[in-house]
C-alpha cells in the first residue's frame, strides 16, 4: 500500500520533450497529450492515486512498438504498456511520466490452430472478444479474471480467476509470446510446442513481469474444447471451515472441479439484498463441473456426498444454461452487491493466497481483524487455489480509514506469508504491494533486481513497479 | 551436437588448487579427487565425451552448499551440481574443470503436506524414493522421465516424460525451490501457495536453468491423489499418421488421458524380438487412463471409438495391475530392446517437440531421413505433447557414422523449429544442443545471456552449458 517510490528520480524532461516531438511527427493524431486521455491511462480501477504519463501513443502493430521503444531507449524515457487498464495495483501509473503505449488497436487474432488447441493473438485482444471469435470452433480460452481484460495485460500480470483450479493461470496457458525488450530487440520467447526444455523459460519470466522487462506484442495461448456438459451448483455450509474442509477433500479425491468459489455470510447477505435472492445467510460454495454428461454428473454427485460429510445444507445443482445462471447469480453480481453495503465508499481489494490447509485460519483471522477495525469486509475466495479477496469499503476522504485499511492489508499479507503463502495470488505487485514483496521475498528480491538490471539497465520499462 | 565451447577459457589452476585445499580441510573424506570418482561424475548416460571435474564434494545440506559456493565464488572456480548423472546432453561435464557438488546425500524428505497435496524434498531424493515414501499417504508424484533421476536434476533440466500430457512437466509441478546463487545467497523462489503473481517467476527461471544460475538445495513439489482406477491399453494403427490423428482427436475431445505413447513399427519389432511378444509390427499407441472406475472406463471406451474411426486394429485394455503390466511390457523394455537392434552400438537420443498437427509430418521426415542415411532409428513419442525421440544406433569408433548422426540430428532440429517446435522437449541443452539453441532462439538468446550475466557475471555456475 506504500506509495513511496524508491526508484523515483527526477523526471527526464528533456528526453520526454524530445521523444514527444518525434512521436508527433511520426504518429500524428495517434500521439495524444491531452489531459483526459492521459488521465484515462493512469487512473483506472486501482485505489492508488493517478500519476499521468506525458503522452499516450496508440500503436497498431509490433513494428510500431519496436520503433517507439527504440526512440524512448535512445532518450531514456519511461515506457508504460497499457491494455484495458483493469489492473488493481497501480500497474499503469506513470510516477516518472513518460509514454503510455496503448495496445487496444493491436486487437487482431493472428492464428487459431484448432488441431493444436492454440491461438496467437495481439496483446489488445480482450478475453471476451477472443471467446466470441472462437465460438464456432468448439474451443474456448478459460482464464477469467472477472474484468474483460486484454490478453497482453493478463499475461503481464499473471492473471487467473475463478477457474484456475482446473485450467491454471496465465503462467500455464501462455505457450510463448513476442516482446520488445528495453534495448529494442523484438524477441520470441518460445515456440508453439506444448513443452520445451530449450534454455531459460523466458515465457514464464515475461508472464507476470508487469511491463518491467519489455512490451508484449503477441501472445500464443492454449485453448480447450468447450466441455460437452457443464453443471453448476450452490451449497451452503455452517462455517467457512466446513466449506474449506469440503474443498480440501474434493481436491484430494481428484475431482476435477472447474470452479469452486467461496462467499462468506456477509457476501451472501449483500447479494441477497442486491439481487433479491434468498440464499441462506451462511458461507456458501459456488461450483462448476465440466466433462462428459456422465463425468460431470459423477463429479457433482461425489461433491454432494463430500459436502454432506461436512454438514452442508442442500446442494442444489443444474445443467441447463438458464438454471445455471440463476444459481450463480449471487456470485456474478458480487462486486456491485458488495459496493452497496456502503454506498459511495471506495473498494480496496486484497489478494492473499495460502496453502489450502491454512485457508480457514487465514480467512478467520481476517474476519476477526476486520471486525475489530469496524470494517464491513465481505470475502470471496477462489478456494480451490487457497486464494481469497477481502473487500474493504472505505471512505477515501478519511485519512484515518485509509490508514486503518493499509494497516489491515499489511497484517493480512504478513499472516499469509507466515502461513506459507503470498501477498498476491493474481493481482500482481504494481505500486501497491512493493513493500509486501520485500517482506515476502527477502534475499530473492536481489535476484529479481539483478534480472531487471541485466535486462533494463536504464530502468525505462514501467519504472516504479514491482521494485 | 557441436562440442566446441564458446566460453572455454583457460582453466583457473590457481583458484582450483586453493579451493581444493580449503575443501580438503573442511570436508575431509567427503572431498574426493580420485580419478574414478571424478570420472563417474562426468561421463554418465550422455554420448558426449567426458570432461572431468577437479574434485567432487559430497554435500549434506544447504548450508554446506552455500559454504562451497561462497568459496568457489571467492576464487572464481566453476561449480557443477550433480544429482544422479542421468542427463543426456553433457550437463554434468566440466569443460573448465572445477568442483562437482554431489547432492546424493541430500536425500531427506523434509515435509509431506497431505492436505495441501505438496511436499518439500532435498535435491538428491530420487523420484522412485519419493514415491515409495508417499505410498501410505494415497498420494504420488507423477513426473516420470524413465530414469530414476533426482528431483533436483529433474527440476534443473525441466524434465517430463510419459505422463506430462496429463500432469504437466517439472515447470508445472515445482511450486517453489531454494537455491544458492552465484554470489552465495541462499534464496527461496516462492511459497507453497498454489498460485502467485508476486514479482518475477524465479521458480520457473531456475527450473530448466541446468545449474547455470545456482545450485538447487530443496524443491517444493505438487502431489496428486493416486487414482482410484487405472486402465492401460495398447492399440495398433496402419500408419503413424492414423495414430497421431487419433491422438489429436482424443486431446480435442478433452479426454484426460494420463499417458499416450507412440511406438513405431521398428520399435514394436525390436520389443517383440527382445521380450518374446507378438504385437503386430505396426505403429501402436500405449495408453493409460486415470480416474474413478466409471470415468476411466468411459475414457477408454471413448478412445476406442476414436481409434476405430482411424482404422485401428484391436484396442486391448485392462484394469488389473498384472494385465496392465503385460500390456505395457513392450513400452517398458523399449530402451534395452532398441539397443539389441545393433549390439555394441552407442545410442544417441534426439528430443524434438512440435505442435501436434505437424507431428506425423515430422516423424515421417525423420524416418525417411534415417532410411536414406542407412540408420536403424526406432522412434518413441510422448505424442500427446508432440514430443518424440529418434534413437540412432551408431558405432562410436566410426567418425563417419558420428558425423552422419550429427548431421541427421541437426536436420531434425531444424525441421522441428520450422514446424513451430523446439529442439528440446525434455532433455535440455547442456553441451549437446548449444548450436541448435542459437538457431532456435535467435535474438531471444541475447536475453538469456543478459540474465546469465546479471546473475552470474564471473560464469562460475556450470560454465559451458546452454550457452
UniProtKB/TrEMBL annotation, chains A, B:
Q: Which residues belong to any copy of the FAD-binding PCMH-type domain? A: 49-226
For this protein, the Enzyme Commission number is 1.1.2.4
Per its UniProt record, the required cofactor names are: FAD
Superkingdom is Bacteria
In its keyword annotation, does this UniProt entry include Ribosomal protein? Answer: no
Q: Name one GO biological process term.
A: lactate catabolic process
Q: Which PROSITE patterns match?
A: FAD_PCMH
| Statement: the UniProt record of this protein carries the keyword Flavoprotein | yes
Key words of the record: FAD, Flavoprotein, Oxidoreductase, Transit peptide
Q: Which GO terms describe its molecular function?
A: D-lactate dehydrogenase (cytochrome) activity; D-lactate dehydrogenase (NAD+) activity; FAD binding
The record's family statement is: Belongs to the FAD-binding oxidoreductase/transferase type 4 family.
PANTHER family referenced in this protein's UniProt entry, alphabetically: D-LACTATE DEHYDROGENASE, D-LACTATE DEHYDROGENASE, MITOCHONDRIAL-RELATED
Q: Write down what this protein is called.
A: D-lactate dehydrogenase (cytochrome)
Naturally occurring in which organism (per UniProt):
Hoeflea prorocentri
| Taxonomy of the source species | Bacteria, Pseudomonadati, Pseudomonadota, Alphaproteobacteria, Hyphomicrobiales
Amino acid at each position: 500500500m506504500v506509495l513511496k517510490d524508491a526508484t523515483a528520480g527526477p523526471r527526464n524532461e528533456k528526453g520526454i520533450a524530445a521523444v514527444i516531438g518525434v512521436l508527433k511527427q511520426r504518429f500524428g493524431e495517434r500521439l495524444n497529450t491531452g489531459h483526459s486521455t492521459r488521465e484515462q491511462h493512469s487512473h483506472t480501477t486501482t485505489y492508488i492515486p493517478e500519476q499521468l504519463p506525458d503522452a499516450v501513443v496508440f500503436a497498431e502493430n509490433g513494428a510500431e512498438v519496436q520503433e517507439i521503444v527504440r526512440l524512448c531507449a535512445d532518450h531514456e524515457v519511461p515506457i508504460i504498456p497499457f491494455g484495458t487498464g483493469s489492473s488493481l495495483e497501480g500497474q499503469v501509473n506513470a510516477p516518472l511520466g513518460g509514454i503510455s503505449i496503448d495496445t487496444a488497436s493491436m486487437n487482431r487474432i493472428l492464428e487459431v490452430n484448432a488441431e493444436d488447441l492454440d491461438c496467437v493473438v495481439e496483446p489488445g485482444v480482450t478475453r471476451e472478444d477472443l471467446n466470441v471469435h472462437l465460438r464456432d470452433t468448439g474451443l474456448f480460452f478459460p482464464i477469467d479474471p472477472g474484468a474483460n481484460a486484454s490478453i497482453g495485460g493478463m499475461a503481464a500480470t499473471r492473471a487467473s480467476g475463478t477457474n484456475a483450479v482446473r485450467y491454471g493461470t496465465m503462467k500455464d496457458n501462455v505457450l510463448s509470446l513476442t516482446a520488445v525488450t528495453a534495448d529494442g530487440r523484438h524477441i520470441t520467447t518460445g515456440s508453439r510446442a506444448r513443452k520445451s526444455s530449450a534454455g531459460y523459460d523466458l515465457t514464464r519470466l515475461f508472464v507476470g513481469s508487469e511491463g518491467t522487462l519489455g512490451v508484449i506484442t503477441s501472445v500464443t495461448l492454449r485453448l480447450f474444447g468447450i466441455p460437452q456438459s457443464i453443471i453448476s451448483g450452490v451449497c451452503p455450509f455452517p462455517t467457512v471451515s466446513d466449506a474449506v474442509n469440503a474443498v480440501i477433500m474434493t481436491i484430494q479425491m481428484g475431482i476435477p472441479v472447474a470452479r469452486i468459489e467461496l462467499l462468506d455470510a456477509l457476501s451472501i447477505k449483500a447479494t441477497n439484498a442486491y439481487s433479491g435472492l434468498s440464499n441462506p445467510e451462511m458461507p456458501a460454495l459456488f461450483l462448476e463441473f465440466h466433462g462428459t454428461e456422465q463425468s460431470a454428473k459423477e463429479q457433482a454427485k461425489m461433491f454432494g456426498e463430500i459436502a454432506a460429510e461436512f454438514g452442508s445444507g442442500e446442494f442444489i445443482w443444474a445443467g441447463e444454461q438458464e438454471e445455471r445462471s440463476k444459481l450463480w447469480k449471487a456470485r456474478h453480481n458480487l462486486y456491485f452487491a458488495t459496493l452497496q453495503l456502503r454506498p459511495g465508499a471506495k473498494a480496496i481489494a486484497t489478494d492473499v493466497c495460502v496453502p489450502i490447509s491454512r485457508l480457514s485460519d487465514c480467512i478467520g483471522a481476517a474476519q476477526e481483524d476486520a471486525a475489530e477495525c469496524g470494517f464491513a469486509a465481505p470475502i470471496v475466495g477462489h478456494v480451490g487455489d487457497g486464494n481469497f479477496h477481502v473487500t474493504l469499503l472505505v471512505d477515501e476522504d478519511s485519512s484515518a480509514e485509509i490508514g486503518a485499511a493499509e494497516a489491515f492489508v499489511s497484517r493480512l499479507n504478513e499472516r499469509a506469508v507466515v502461513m506459507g503463502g503470498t501477498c498476491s495470488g493474481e493481482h500482481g505487485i504494481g505500486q501497491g504491494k512493493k513493500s509486501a514483496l520485500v517482506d515476502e521475498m527477502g534475499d530473492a528480491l536481489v535476484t529479481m533486481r539483478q534480472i531487471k538490471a541485466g535486462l533494463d539497465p536504464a530502468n525505462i520499462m514501467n519504472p516504479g513497479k514491482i521494485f
